[in-house]
Design a protein that fits this description.
The complex is a heterodimer of chains A (387) and B (315). Chain A folds into 2 domains: 229 residues, P-loop containing nucleotide triphosphate hydrolases (Rossmann fold, 3-Layer(aba) Sandwich), CATH 3.40.50; 147 residues, OB fold (Dihydrolipoamide Acetyltransferase, E2P), CATH 2.40.50. Chain A has 387 residues and is of the alpha+beta class. Chain A contains 8 helices and 22 strands. Chain A is elongated. In chain A, the strands form 4 sheets. In chain A, strands 11, 12, 13, 14, 15, 16, 17, 18, 19 and 20 form a 10-stranded antiparallel β-sheet that branches. Chain A has a 6-stranded mixed β-sheet with strand order 6-7-8-3-9-10, with helices on both faces. Chain B has a domain of 175 residues: MetI-like (MetI-like fold), CATH 1.10.3720. Chain B is built from 11 helices and 2 strands; from the N terminus they run αββαααααααααα. Chain B has a two-stranded antiparallel ribbon with strand order 1-2. The longest helix of chain B has 39 residues. Chain B is flat and about 115 Å long. The model of chain B has no long low-confidence stretch (mean pLDDT 86). The chains are: A alpha+beta (387), B mainly alpha (315). At the A-B interface, β6 and α2 of A face α8 and α9 of B. The structure holds adenosine-5'-diphosphate and magnesium ion (MG).
């Protein structure tokens, strides 16, 4: 049982800052997914947790105990490497039993634990093979078995599914979730795959260029992305983003951009003239019959279809609105073809606003304050939505 | 009415006509190209390695004193019979074994220890340290031997002064063999250290990291993970030592001891050279060469077969 707390953790490699002042609190039993594009510092952060890379600054606490300088073997953590790092000269059985042998457990215990774990993961047939005689999926299981055999306080997984084919990845995803549910241990899972993050995580921490962008449940990071980066990184197709400006028109606020007019409601004259980045998810854009007269006060976006993608059950039309590309998703058939003019509408509460300079989400303060504010601080786990 | 959906229609394939004569020739010409690239190397190998080998085999059945004016007399297997009755043949093999065993610490044990300890040296310091270790290999053996001769001088040599001994290093059988082993070892140590460093660099850090997380102490990581994964390199070094020790030591023996005192430093290479070019018994030298070639060939094959069995590759 382990709670992991990270305070101002930083790692520099020469001029590169791989991890930049990351603060995280992973409660016991959490399944935290570190999500971010390749090279954003996920592996470096995980290796610092494991004790394989010393941090340049910051502290790591395990159950309140400072383990920043503790060697890896005394940390009570198990890790699955992206390369799996199965010892090539040892059989599957000896690979799985390694953590117990290294801790000088009695031989019968090593044998019985190895056998139990192998049975759980369906590896009994493979116990006498060497790693090079295994398929990618089997290697992944052996790596997992080696992590499981010792019953560690927390599991660190570095892109464990990235070397598997799509079918196996989906199946293994479900298995890992099930394993987490059964064990109740803390998992820190690194991935660049948003589907993995959305489906497995109890919490997602989104990293970008070494910095923490947002921490929250899958619903929070998807529905209320804290920054332009998070908004664009999660979701497929990615959220459409376009620059706009808040104007005060006839007693109410509207977001205006070329061919775009979205009412925000409420009189907030202070915000008039503010430049913003406007984001709308593909599934929140609706087609308006071109012949129908626009409902007064409704959001309106006009553009041209550039490309229609068939996803099987749905279609995605990529539309050009002003200079920006906005994907529109809807049931098939959408009845659109490349070159068609489209008129779109959306519910104003589905529109995300971001500050163009900082990229942070703009949230409306309650009426008393009456202004949109930039949420500049990165929330920690206890405060998931920007305050 | 329901009708079954047709399976995808078979695609009509037009058979390619069999190649004509000229096309076949052209194809043969194309497959010849790689051999043409290899040809210069193969020709040189043939002239400088296999032709002398065959000639040595032929020479071993003749009696000849190397003088162009003297005729070569065919003697059948007489050279081989003589060889096996000469006591120095057996003792030279034994001395070669001692030489190989004496060199193994320099080519395997010390390089592994140095390689493991030096893994923490990084950047510029690593370059300087590797240059220092590698330097002896760049010194011509004969030049090195001259300096060592001076260091080993029984009266004024630095070695005796430091050790506080009065040993006549190159004139007493035991010390002479020891001196040859140590000087040869000093020469090849740098090469072996570099080979070990390259072998260690080829092992992914993930294994040591995984083992450390699995609870292994640094000593256990070295013994259970690093050394087994280094085994291909270690086998290579053992193979080199067994096959090449006698050759490595040759220039030193020739300069420092001439195989003496009383044959104490005469190993198999020095012996066959001695037969041919000191005793001018070319046939006997050639016979010894053939025997050693066959012997080392068998040893090499056995070691290669063994290495396939005991080594593990990091794949
Ligand atoms: N050992 C290292 N030496 C120098 N730079 C490194 C090292 N490890 C990682 N980096 C750099 O740190 C950044 C983050 O790397 P990494 O944590 O591996 O990213 P991720 O796992 O998210 O793909 C990258 O820019 C990478 O080049
Ligand atoms: Mg990585």
């Amino acid at each position: 049982m382990s709670r992991i707390q990270i305070e101002g953790l930083t790692r520099r490699f020469g001029a590169v800052t791989a991890v930049d002042h990351v603060d995280l609190d992973v409660p016991d039993g959490d399944f935290l997914v570190l999500l971010g594009p390749s090279g954003c510092g996920k592996s470096t952060l995980l290796r610092m947790l494991a004790g394989l890379t010393p941090p340049s600054a910051g502290r790591i606490l395990l159950d309140g105990r400072d383990i920043t300088a503790t060697p890896p073997r005394d940390r009570d953590l198990a890790m699955v490497f992206q390369s799996y790092a199965l010892y090539p000269h040892l059989t599957v059985a000896r690979n799985i039993g390694f953590p117990l042998r290294a801790r000088r457990r009695p031989r019968p215990e090593v044998a019985s634990r190895t056998e139990t774990v192998a049975r759980v993961l369906g590896l009994e047939e493979l116990l006498h093979r060497r790693p090079r005689e295994l398929s990618g999926g089997q290697r992944q299981r052996v790596a997992l078995a080696r992590a499981l055999v010792r019953d560690p306080g927390a599991f660190l997984l570095d892109e464990p599914l990235s070397n598997l084919d799509a079918t196996l990845r989906t199946a293994t995803r479900a298995e890992l979730t099930e394993l987490h549910r059964r064990l109740g241990s803390t998992f820190v899972h690194v991935t660049h795959d948003q589907v993995e993050a959305m489906t497995m995580a109890t919490r997602i921490a989104v990293l970008n260029a070494g910095r923490l962008e947002q921490v929250g449940t899958a619903a929070q990071v998807y529905d209320e992305p804290a920054s332009v980066f998070v908004a664009g990184f999660l979701g497929s197709p990615a959220m459409g983003l376009l620059p706009g400006r808040i104007e005060h028109v006839e007693g109410s606020l509207r977001v205006l951009a070329p061919d775009v007019d979205i009412p925000l409601g409420g009189p907030d004259p202070e915000d008039a003239g503010r430049e913003v980045v406007l984001g709308i998810r593909a599934e929140h854009l609706l087609l308006v019959e071109p012949t129908a007269a626009p409902r007064p006060g409704a959001a309106l976006l006009r553009g041209t279809v550039r490309l229609v993608e068939n996803l099987g059950s749905e279609e995605v039309a990529h539309c050009l609105v002003g200079d920006a590309r906005l994907p529109v998703r809807g049931p098939r058939p959408l009845g659109l073809a490349a070159g068609d003019p489209v008129t779109l509408t959306t519910a104003p509460e589905r529109v995300h606003l971001f500050d163009p300079a900082s990229g942070r989400r703009l949230v409306r303060r309650p009426a008393s304050a009456g202004t949109a504010a930039v949420s500049t601080h990165v929330p920690d786990l206890s405060a998931v939505s920007p305050s | 009415m329901f009708v079954e959906l047709d399976a995808p229609a078979p695609v009509a394939v037009r058979a390619v006509p069999p190649p004509s004569r000229s096309a076949r020739l052209r194809r043969a010409g194309r497959s010849l190209v790689p051999y043409l690239y290899l040809a210069p190397g193969l020709v040189l190998l043939g002239i400088w390695v296999y032709r002398p080998l065959v000639q040595t085999g032929q020479l071993s059945f003749f009696s000849w004193n190397l003088l162009p004016t003297t005729p070569m007399v065919p003697v059948g297997f007489e050279n081989y019979e003589r060889l096996f009755t000469l006591p120095e043949f057996g003792t030279s093999i034994w001395r070669t074994v001692v030489l190989v065993l004496g060199l193994l610490p320099f080519t395997v044990v010390v390089p592994v220890a140095v390689g493991l300890l030096a893994r923490r040296v990084r950047g510029r310091a690593a370059v300087i340290y590797q240059a220092l270790v590698f330097a002896p290999l760049l010194i011509a053996p004969v030049a090195g031997a001259a300096v060592w001769q001076w260091l080993l001088d029984p009266r004024s040599g630095a070695i005796n002064q430091v050790l506080g001994t009065t040993t006549n290093w190159l004139q007493e059988p035991g010390p002479a063999q020891l001196a040859i082993i140590v000087i040869t070892g000093w020469h090849v140590l740098g090469f072996a250290v570099l080979v070990v460093a390259a072998g260690l660099a080829g092992i992914s850090d993930d294994y040591a990291g995984a083992a450390a997380l699995d609870g292994a102490t640094p000593g256990q990581v070295t013994r259970w993970i690093t050394l087994p994964l280094l085994s291909p390199t270690l086998v290579f070094l053992v193979l080199m030592t067994v096959l090449l020790s006698a050759q490595w030591s040759f220039p030193l023996i020739d300069t420092l001891t001439n195989g003496g005192p009383a044959g104490a430093t005469t190993n198999v290479y020095y012996l066959l050279w001695d037969y041919g070019f000191h005793s001018f018994d070319a046939g006997l030298g050639a016979a010894a060469g053939v025997i050693f070639f066959a012997g080392f060939g068998v040893i090499a094959a056995a070691l290669v077969a063994l290495s396939d069995r005991v080594t593990f590759h990091d794949n």
